[in-house]
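Our preliminary data section would be incomplete without showing what the modeling component actually yields. Below, a chain of 132 amino acids is followed by its predicted structure, encoded as tokens that our downstream tools consume directly.
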Amino acid sequence: MKTVILTIAAGASALATTAASAAPGDELAGNSAEVVRSDGARGRILFARDGSLRFTGKYEGHGFDTDGGWTLANGQLCWDLRNHVHECWVYPQQLMFDAPTMLRSADGPLGLRFTVRYGTGAVMPKDGAFNH
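Predicted structure:
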């Protein structure tokens, strides 16, 4: 009986240590996010574990669907989209799933409401969703 309890306790301790040592950005790999920029651009991003991404979005009434790559280093989440701009956002800590978080542009005055979802669960945000 003592062996079983010690084994369970050791396993729980190892899981807690692993969760506590996760680095910011680990929650993105293999998951998705809903994003709404303060200028009205919005979209859905699928973050692959290999650093590639798929971004489906809408800006000024025009839709787009493109691929690209993402990195998270030195406290900045950056993405490069094919035929679109390179953007970086200050990403100070690991984010919680399903909790909208405000990020700020590393390059200017824009804000970004960023919501991480498990797997491919992110949906396209509605128009005017920045402050909701």
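Strands lie at 31-37, 42-47, 52-59, 62-73, 76-81, 86-90, 101-104, 111-117. Residues 102 and 113 are 5 Å apart (CA to CA). Preliminary results of this kind motivate Aim 1 of the renewal.
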